[in-house]
Design goal:
single chain, alpha/beta, 2 domains, five-stranded mixed β-sheet, four-stranded mixed β-sheet, 5 helices, about 20% helix, about 30% strand, globular
């Protein structure tokens, strides 16, 4: 929110959990809001989403007739589809924070990198089934370098920070431990 207030940034906030989405709406952010989830396939699909405040996540890609307690059916869209839907289609994203409690690698693989210029990404890696070095290798293939890692002993923030190779980084960024 600080970037919105200090620098006039805007953005796209995506939240699948209806309860958390209502909280986001109350904040009156200077951003587009979407009560959906990020697709783990390159096309829209529905999932069962387990609600759990800040650690809610996709519970199943297979819809069942009976939902477990604190679960909802969530509509998922590829990030590129959501970017295309807001106005004239966003072609450049200055900063993308990807934290979906375990499906980050699948979401990254849905991005048409040749169509959108994402300059800087933070990607949570702690809950993924994919080994973290696989995420780093994938991003290197896509033209990114990892400039630092953010870690937290309580698993509250465990992110890789990637910068596109076309973006100069003029300072050394130490690993951040919180």
């Amino acid at each position: 929110m600080d970037l919105e207030l200090r620098f006039g940034w805007t953005g796209l906030l995506i939240e699948a959990d209806p309860k958390n989405f209502a909280l986001v709406q109350q904040k009156r952010r200077n951003a587009w809001l979407s009560n959906s989830c990020l697709a783990t396939h390159p096309y829209p699909h529905k999932v069962i989403f387990k609600q759990n405040f800040n650690v809610g996540k996709i519970a199943s890609d297979t819809l069942s007739p009976k939902l477990e307690e604190n679960s909802v059916i969530a509509q998922c869209f590829p990030i590129y589809s959501l970017l295309a839907a807001i106005g004239q289609g966003v072609k450049t994203v200055d900063y993308f924070s990807l934290d979906v409690e375990g499906n980050e690698f699948e979401v990254l693989k849905t991005i048409p990198w040749e169509k959108v210029n994402i300059r800087v990404l933070s990607v949570e890696y702690i809950h993924n089934d994919a080994p973290s070095d696989e995420i780093v290798k994938y991003m290197q293939i896509k033209g990114y370098r990892m400039v630092t890692r953010v870690t937290n002993r309580n698993n509250l923030a465990n992110d890789f920070i990637f910068v596109h190779n076309s973006v100069p980084v003029t300072v050394s960024i130490p690993e951040i431990h919180t």
